[in-house]
Task: structure prediction
Amino acid sequence: MPFLVLDRLTKHYGASAAVDGLSLTVERGEFVSLLGPSGCGKTTTLQMIAGFVEPSGGAITLDGSDLIATKPAKRGLGIVFQSYALFPHMNAAENVAFGLAMQGVARAERDRRVTDALALVGLAGFAARFPRSMSGGQQQRVALARALVIRPRILLLDEPLSNLDAKLREEMQVELRQIQRSVGITTILVTHDQAEAMALSDRIVIMNKGRAEQIARPDCAYERPASAFVASFLGKTNLLAGRVAGGTLSIGDRTWPAPPDLDGGAVAVTLRPEKIGFADDGLAGVVRTRLFLGSQWLFQIDTGAGLVLVIRQNGGDAAPAEGATVALAWRPDDMRIARAEGGVA
Result:
C-alpha cells in the first residue's frame, strides 16, 4: 500500500485554482520533488500536506489514515523552511531539542537524540553555537537536524537550499541526499531549481498552473518529456520549427521519416543541446555566439530552423569560432515532436 496518497487534491482561492486535482502516490522512503515555476502550486501542495492550508477538495492519506482530519501538530511531520526559522536566542542544541521538549521527551533521552542528530548533519562540535555565529550552510544543517530529531514520518523541505551560494548549495545537495538515504525517511521537496530536483529525487512532479504535467524519474522526464512545457522547463532545450508532409518531417533543409501517427502540418521539435554535434553533413548554420564554460562549450547557431543551442564537452580540441559555417547533426531518436495540443510524440 502506498505510504502517502494525494487524491485529486485541490485548492481554490476565489475563482482561481492554486492546485487543480493533483493526484500522487509516494512510497515509504522515497524522495519526491515538486518542481515548477512560481505560482504553479507546489508550495500550496506542501502546505496542505503539512496542515497549514486547508484543501478545497480531494483527500490526503498517510499510511492509510486521513491526514486532513489530523491537526498539524499531530501529523508527525518534520519541516525545513527556506528561512530555516531558527530561534536566535537558542544555541544549536537548544534549537534541535525544542520539538522533543514539546513532545515531553525525558532530558537524558533528549540530550542523546540531539547529540546524534547534530552528528548526523556534521555539526558534532557546534552544540553551543548560536545561529548568529553560524554560516548559512551550518544554520541549514541545524534546521535539518531539528526536523529529523523528532523522527518524523515524512520530511517536508520548502526550498531549503535557495539561500545558499552555488558552491555550498551543490555540497548540501550531496549531503542532504546522503542523510536521506541513511535515515530512510520519506521526503517531499519543493524547489524551482531543475538541477536540484534531478540530482536529489527518485521521482519529480513537474507542475504547471496547479496541475502535474508529468510525474516520472528524473532521467525519464528529461529524456522523454510529456509536454513542450516539461521539455523547456526541465533543463535547456531547443524548440525547432518543423513540418510534416507525406510521412516526412522537415527541419530547415533536412528530412527524416515522421512518426506514423503524426498528422501533417507545422510541428515544434524539442531537442536537447547536448544531443547535437558538429558534422560534415547536417543542418547548415553559422556560429553566432561561443561561450567557454570550463568543462563545456556553449554555442548559439543561426540556422534555417531558427537559433539552435549546442553544448559540447570540452575535450581539449579546437572549437568552431564565431562566424564559422558549421553543420549540425543528431540522432532521430533524440527528437521529441510537439503536437498541436501541446503533447510530445
About this structure: The two ends are 33 Å apart (CA to CA).
